[in-house]
Amino acid sequence: MLRECTNFWGGTAIVQEPPAIEKHYDVTYFPLSRQVWYDKDPNWGVYGADGHLIDAAALRRGNSTPPRLCGQSRVHAHPFPTEFDWAEDIEYIYMGCFISHYGHYLCSTLVRLWPLLREGLNGRKLLLHAPNGPDHEFRIPYAAMTLEGLGLKPDDIVVFQEPRRIRRLIIPRPSFVEQLLGHHAHRDLCHRIGEQFLDGLDMTTALPPVYFSKTKLLGGVGRIGNESVIENVLASNGIGIVYPEQLSLREQVRLFAENRVIAGTGGTQLHTGILAPPVARVVALSASHSVNSNLLLFDRLNDRTAGYVYDDRGYREMQNQDKFLTSDYLEDPEATAHDLLALIREL
């Protein structure tokens, strides 16, 4: 039978106050490598005049103390002070690292943009770490829609492919740290982005429940390998089946804003809910009793009613199957489906 998940891997702290903002002088920007994934690249980052990584600019995640670095180095291997070329003599705002995975984008790339809600750019430029220039990032549909929702355009963002010295850099600390904490400022930022998608919606009358399926997804981190059984049972009982990757970001946000219940397996597909008001209740099915705390953090930030459940009849895990890192096969997927259906109907 379905039971409530009781273990969340990662921290779950919600912080009402906004993060701090720091201003640093004479820092060195080391670019991302195009040959090495950011999490494995020890050289990228923003470093002070003594060669130490500036903590406020560090990309971290997890609930260790301190949270683990994603690439970068505590002290850069290059001799300091550096003699690299100076960047244009303007004031920059550090935007962080562009991560193309959609879930990490929402959780780690947007997290330094929260000050724009109260003061905008005011003639300053955003300084970004990315393997390509801003024109490339704006060709990614979800990135273009979210950044344009904040009034940004490619010319507002600077990416260097060679080390540069920066005279003045404003560094907002992140509004969300994966698997650790979330500030209310992150919810406010995401709601501002999502406003552009809500025109014409009547959110006082919720539409019937839908199920977010991964059965047509071509690859990813994790899935339920026999999810098609669940999908068939739910569809035959009147639950709408949705394949999020086939929808635009606008369409996905509107589903969270107008449907009574959204069910699905836990993962990135449910992160989009942070961009919408907490209309839909969420039921997230997990193969095990343990769930990534990013899901809980997003739901708590958004005051969304959400439940995380697993089937105590068990599952079998397969590694590296069909372009998924893990595929979990439920022991009795039809029974799981009927239990999930009953839970959806109760909400």
Blueprint of the fold:
Blueprint (H helix, E strand, L loop, with lengths): L1 E3 L2 E3 L3 E3 L5 E10 L14 E3 L12 E2 L6 E2 L21 E7 L4 H8 L6 H4 L5 E5 L4 H4 L3 H9 L7 E2 L5 E9 L3 E2 L3 E3 H11 L15 E3 L7 E5 L2 H10 L3 E3 L6 H10 L2 E5 L15 E6 L3 E3 H9 L4 E6 L3 E7 L2 E7 L2 H14 L1
Parallel strand pairs: 2-19, 3-13, 8-9, 8-11, 9-10, 14-16, 14-17, 15-22, 17-18, 18-20
Antiparallel strand pairs: 1-20, 4-5, 4-11, 6-7, 12-13, 21-22
Helix pairs in contact: 6-9
Molecular structure report:
The protein has 347 residues and is of the alpha/beta class. Helices cover 23% and strands 29% of the residues. It has 9 helices and 22 strands. The strands form 6 sheets. A 6-stranded mixed beta sheet has the order 1-20-18-17-14-16. Helix 6 packs across helix 9 (333-346). The radius of gyration is 21 Å and the shape is globular.
Short description:
The chain is of the alpha/beta class and 347 residues long. It is built from nine helices and 22 strands.
Biggest sheet overview: 6 strands, mixed
Binned strand content: 25-35%
If you average the pLDDT, what whole number results?
94
Which oligomeric state applies?
A: single chain
Helical region count? 9
Stretches where pLDDT is under 50 for at least 5 consecutive residues are none
Distance between the termini: 18 Å
Q: Please give the radius of gyration in angstroms.
A: 21 Å
**Share of helix, binned:** 10-25%
Shape: globular
Counting helices, strands and paired strands, the structural category is alpha/beta
List the strand order in the largest sheet.
1-20-18-17-14-16
How many E strands?
22
